[in-house]
Design brief:
five-stranded mixed β-sheet; 12 helices; 472 residues; alpha+beta
């Protein structure tokens, strides 16, 4: 069973405080604030003495080399313990510690006397000399007390400093655990960083104003570099104003580039929203996904968008868009809306019908309304043919048409009993490979319209009603 700690009762006659009872393994006496017996005086060391209980007896040990400790007028050697008896008086500086035993307890009465001094000579006529000579501690007890206090005074030898270790020492025997510190390194002056930031900022601003191309990987395309719009009338212009090679039109400090694109390309003739193909909007496809920039002055963003369709929609693209993959459409050719006798074409939305230039035509109005008793297949077929038959001019495309050069049934179908569905798949490319803004090339947007309110996804010269309006 582990032995309990001894009991000390400390009475301060020099202070107006109540007696304090402590149960501790050892009692520390000194000027250090954490000492149990605090003696605040310059002649008292930080840790001056210690009192221990060993085998029922109390021992006083001197822990200070610079200031003496006397017991009953006799000098206590440094690091040597002396046994305490009832009535002993120890002097530490101007303080007197009167010891008295009360059973297993040790009572310590602390008095403060500035003018008093106990010396071996003067003590010969005092009552202290009549007390028995303090007994030396046995060798075994002395060694144990020396080891006990040696571990507790090792860190008390010097005054704490900023270089003093802040972590507690490792348990066990003393070991070498030095670590380098950086507190003696000369710190970098803050002015170096401040002036560096000011100089670099000034150079960046000067470069942005005087030589903006330094921040551009490659020159802007000609449509974004020109100082005036190609179509100055509001009916055909697709931008509010010319960019004139400005960086801040697209790249602003607080706004997003996609929002700046949409804001500029919002006119009477064009709307930059992605409502035409909802799957693109769901997949997070934005303006720069199709219309890249900084590709050189000869680069055409609008034409590049048409080529981007085939680059993205290919079997080799392993990326997922909104959790879905994309593949090469229509087997790599122009698509046909009927597969295995079933219409796959989903028709046009009401907004797309409204954007047709001949939306007010009576035939177009009837095609938008589903008739009573008409199946979904029949309605899609009627809509598809309303968009093509007698509406598209084919006389300059090498296709057979009616007397006015308009598309007729025989333009695509060579036979009707049974119905020829093979030839139409080959004739689609005659019209849907043409783009009025560039040389003839694949034009996915002639069927899959991304920007519904766009004047250029179909060549107006192919529309029969346009020719009739010009002839009137």
């Amino acid at each position: 069973m582990e032995k309990s700690s001894p009991t000390f009762i400390i009475t301060r006659e020099d202070q107006v405080v109540d007696p304090v009872t402590l149960r501790t393994q050892a009692l520390r006496v000194g000027r250090e604030p954490d000492c149990e017996v605090l003696l605040n005086h310059p002649t008292v060391s930080r840790l001056h003495a210690g009192i221990n209980e060993v085998e029922g007896r109390f021992y006083l040990i001197n822990l200070s080399q610079s200031h003496p400790v006397t017991l009953n007028g006799r000098l206590v050697e440094f690091n040597e313990p002396d046994a305490l008896a009832d009535g002993d008086v120890a002097q530490i500086g101007p303080f007197f510690l009167h010891m008295s035993r009360a059973g297993e307890e040790l009572n310590i009465h602390v008095l403060f006397q500035v003018a008093a001094a106990i010396t071996p000579e003067s003590g010969a006529s005092d009552e202290v000399t009549e007390q028995p000579e303090p007994a030396q501690a046995p060798l075994k007890v002395a060694d144990a007390l020396k080891e006990f206090w040696d571990k507790r005074t090792r860190d008390k030898a010097a005054r704490p400093s900023p270089l003093h270790p802040r972590q507690p020492p490792l348990p066990g025997k003393a070991r070498f655990s030095w670590k380098p510190t950086r507190d003696l390194l000369r710190p970098w002056p803050r002015s170096v960083f401040v002036w560096a930031a000011v100089i670099l900022g000034a150079l960046s601003v000067a470069a942005a104003l005087l030589y903006a191309r330094a921040f551009s990987p490659r020159p802007l395309s000609e449509p974004h570099a020109r100082a005036s719009l190609a179509h100055k009338d509001s009916v055909s212009a697709i931008a509010k104003q010319a960019n004139a090679g400005s960086c801040t039109s697209c790249h602003t400090l607080g706004g997003k580039m996609e929002a700046n694109c949409s804001s500029c390309h919002q006119t009477e003739a064009f709307a930059s929203d992605l409502s035409g193909i909802q799957a693109h909007a769901d997949a997070g496809i934005g303006c720069i996904s199709c219309h890249a920039e900084h590709q050189g002055a000869d680069f055409l963003p609008a034409t590049a968008a048409l080529n981007a369709c085939a680059k993205c929609h290919t079997d080799g693209n392993r990326n997922l868009y909104h959790g879905r993959r994309v593949f090469t459409p229509h087997g790599g050719t122009v698509g046909y809306p009927v597969v295995n006798g079933v219409w796959r074409w989903k028709g046009l939305s009401e907004a797309e019908w409204q954007q047709k230039p001949d939306a007010a035509n009576e035939l177009m109005k009837r095609a938008r309304v589903r008739l009573n008793g008409e199946t979904e297949e029949q309605w899609r077929s009627r809509q598809f043919h309303a968009l093509h038959v007698q509406r598209v001019l084919v006389r300059d495309l090498g296709l057979k048409g009616n007397a006015e050069g308009e598309m007729s049934c025989s333009s695509c179908h060579k036979s009707f009993a049974p119905l020829d569905r093979t030839t139409p798949a080959t004739t689609c490319a005659a019209c849907h490979n043409f783009d009025n803004r560039a040389a003839p090339t694949a034009n996915c947007s002639s069927c899959h319209v991304q920007h519904i309110k766009e004047p250029g996804h179909w060549n107006p010269k192919l529309l029969a009603f346009k020719l009739k309006e010009e002839q009137r």
